[in-house]
TrEMBL record:
One GO CC term on file: cytosol
PROSITE patterns: NAD_G3PDH
InterPro entries per the UniProt record, alphabetical: 6-PGluconate_DH-like_C_sf (IPR008927), 6PGD_dom2 (IPR013328), G3P_DH_NAD-dep (IPR006168), G3P_DH_NAD-dep_C (IPR006109), G3P_DH_NAD-dep_N (IPR011128), NAD(P)-bd_dom_sf (IPR036291)
Protein name in the entry: Unannotated protein
Family per record: Belongs to the NAD-dependent glycerol-3-phosphate dehydrogenase family.
Organism: freshwater metagenome
Positions of the Glycerol-3-phosphate dehydrogenase NAD-dependent N-terminal domain: 3-158
GO molecular function: glycerol-3-phosphate dehydrogenase [NAD(P)+] activity; NAD binding
Pfam family, one: NAD_Gly3P_dh_N
Length: 332
């Protein structure tokens, strides 16, 4: 069995460590906190993030980043997107020269507008060694071994295949594609639509409203992704439509939950205080809209979401504005 490293012992990093261990890899998991590492090693639990889940004995946790990275054939990174650059500046040079580096993150860097794979590439990792994993992947369901699928995207078929092989087991299947842009933007943009659906759910609107937002939202985020070079088929695959469906309606989705609280009248500050983990949409919405404006892409749903997040629109007023840009009838 080959050694793989996972950086980040939150819900998704720990869950993916389980996926990899159950697929036959020896996994070393880096935790920022010693008490989390000790619990994983001694009790095979990470109760703060995955309550009730037993972890495989094949996962060994440590706070020693050098020890975790040493000899790893694959390095999976699951840290908050806005801290990726600072993390890589601290330990990026410790990543073995031949290892494949896998992004489990779904966000854009606020200051630069870069996707996570682009930030990784800026730290001396060749494009052919970078892989992105995305799909309809709610951590608690996968940790409970409920069947699910994802996609590994890379410019290198060999790298994508190696990661897909390592991250496939009896309950989790990883497919491959070569559309890194579409796979990443699918995971980033669906969070914004999930917040929109959460808002109208919090207000009390029904399934017609939510279905309208989901379908028009898919059209909106597909236009955006394709303008940046994504393939249309990616946006109706696991990383696009699949992830959108899972995230938009599940109470396990942080972004849906954030939207729901906004719809119930909580402020952005209150939502951030109540959430135990980051809802990426709340920090990426402004950056996404800046990127859209640079390419003259209309994103009416995302624009209304930003107004609600920033307290500039009453959540109850949002639904009539979400699904159209003007009073003039338009083609679908």
């Amino acid at each position: 069995m080959s050694k793989v490293a996972v950086i980040g012992a939150g819900s998704w990093g720990t869950t993916f460590s389980k996926v990899l261990a159950d697929g036959g890899s020896d996994v070393m998991l880096w935790s920022r906190r010693e008490e989390v590492a000790s619990e994983i090693n001694n009790s095979h639990r990470n109760a703060g993030y995955l309550p009730g889940v037993n972890l495989p004995a094949g996962i060994v946790a440590s706070t020693d980043i050098e020890k975790v990275l040493a000899g790893a054939s694959q390095v999976y990174i699951s840290v908050p997107s806005q801290s990726l650059r600072s993390n890589l500046e601290q330990w990026g040079k410790l990543i073995p020269k031949e290892s494949i580096v896998v992004s489990l993150m779904k966000g854009v860097e606020q200051k630069t507008g870069l996707r996570m794979s682009q930030v990784i590439a800026q730290h001396g990792i060749g494009e052919d060694r970078v892989v992105v994993i995305s799909g309809p992947n709610l951590a608690l369901e996968i940790a409970a071994e409920q069947p699910a699928a994802s996609v590994a995207a890379s410019s290198s078929t060999d790298s994508a295949m190696a990661v897909a092989k390592a991250s496939t087991n009896s309950y989790f299947t990883t497919f491959t594609n070569n559309d890194v842009i579409g796979t990443e933007f699918g995971g980033i943009l669906k969070n914004l639509i999930a917040v929109a659906i959460g808002i109208v759910n919090g207000v009390g609107y029904g399934q017609n409203t939510k279905a309208s937002i989901m379908t028009r939202g898919l059209s909106e985020i597909s236009r955006f992704a394709e303008a940046f070079g994504a393939k249309p088929e990616t946006m109706v695959g696991l990383a696009g439509l699949g992830d959108l469906i899972a995230t938009s309606e599940s109470p396990l989705s942080r972004n849906h939950k954030a939207g729901e609280m906004l719809g119930q009248g909580f402020s952005k500050k209150e939502v951030l205080e109540k959430l135990s983990q980051t809802a990426e949409a709340l920090v990426s919405v402004s950056t996404v809209l800046e990127l859209a404006r640079d390419k003259n892409i209309a994103m009416p749903i995302v624009e209304q979401v930003e107004l609600v997040i920033e307290g500039k629109m009453n959540p109850k007023d949002i639904a009539p504005h979400l699904t159209h840009m003007s009073d003039t009838p338009q083609g679908e």
